[in-house]
Amino acid sequence: MTEHRVLIVDDEALARDRLRRLLEAMDGCHVCAEAANGTEALEQAGEQRPDVVLMDVRMPGMDGIAASRELTAQATPPAVIFCTAYDDYALSAFQVEATDYLVKPVRREALASALARAARVNRLQHRQLAPEEKAAIVVRNQAGVERIELDRLYYANADNKYVTLVHDQGETLCDYSLRDLEQAHGEQLLRIHRHSLVNRRYLKALTRTQSGHQAQLSDPANTRLRVSRRHAAAVRDYLEG
Q1: Which numeric CATH code is attached to 4-124?
Q2: Residues 236, 232, 200, 80: is their CA dihedral positive or negative?
Q3: Which has fewest Cβ within 10 Å: 23, 34, 90, 175?
Q4: What is the Cβ-side half-sphere exposure of residue 7, based on CA atoms within 13 angstroms?
Q5: CB atoms inside a 10 Å sphere around CB 212
């Protein structure tokens, strides 16, 4: 089992101790360091290279939002999970690409679910090993392992609990959520509907019909996908930009 290195960031020692105890009771987790504010978090992250950061929001000096903004801007960022006593920072947290947002007191089950999701996101994030290597989505299923390069992916559709990846070799079911895919590959994938992401390189046009907006793709099937009113402006801005 792969061991995930976790950095705990909280200005309260008791809160750090509680999170450490929760993590030590879980398989596959190792607390590599602790920090009491955002500045210390950046220093420890630079030295320890954690896979996951459990981040408080309100701290003296640099707060958790500012520190997370710095962390997620890195070439190979850790997954950030906010653990805070306040529930009114969720929007700010996700604007800095946080993986999850937990409200104290953090429950073991909620933390385990957030760590599992962080592992999926980390697995999705491309770490360039060679100049010629291309970004890809790696799918593990009963048939084995399938690697789908982003250049080959046309779009992704969510249906119930599964997501279908439609690419140049057909379709592949995966257990990633659209949010996982969007967070790991947001530069290539554009949200057009709560059920759909499209590869920007294949987005050809935005059309309007009696039933609403549609995205026209430049794939071999000339696919048309529904665009929600909420996301139509972003699609138009991308095409015009």
Answers
A1: 3.40.50.2300
A2: positive
A3: 175
A4: 29
A5: 12
Superfamily of domain covering 149-240: LytTr DNA-binding domain (2.40.50.1020)
- Percent above pLDDT 90 for the chain: 60
131: pLDDT strictly greater than 60:
no
The residues spanned by each domain of the chain are 4-124, 149-240
Q: Residue 231 corresponds to which amino acid?
A: H
First-residue to last-residue Cα distance in the chain: 45
How many helical (H) and strand (E) elements, i.e. helices and strands, does the chain have? 7, 15
Instruction: Let me know if the fold of 4-124 is the same as that of 149-240.
Output: no
Question: Directed axis angle between helix 38-48 and helix 64-72, to 10°?
Answer: 30
Binned at pLDDT 50, 70 and 90, residue 143 comes out as: low
pLDDT at 30: 93
- Residue 179 tokens read as 């949010």
| Segment (H or E) for 215 | strand 212-217
The 8-class DSSP code of residue 150 comes to: G
What does the alpha-carbon distance between residue 122 and residue 118 come to, in Å, rounded to a whole number? 6
Pair 79, 52: CB distance under 8 Å? yes
pTM of the model: 0.56
CB neighbours of residue 163 within 10 Å? 23
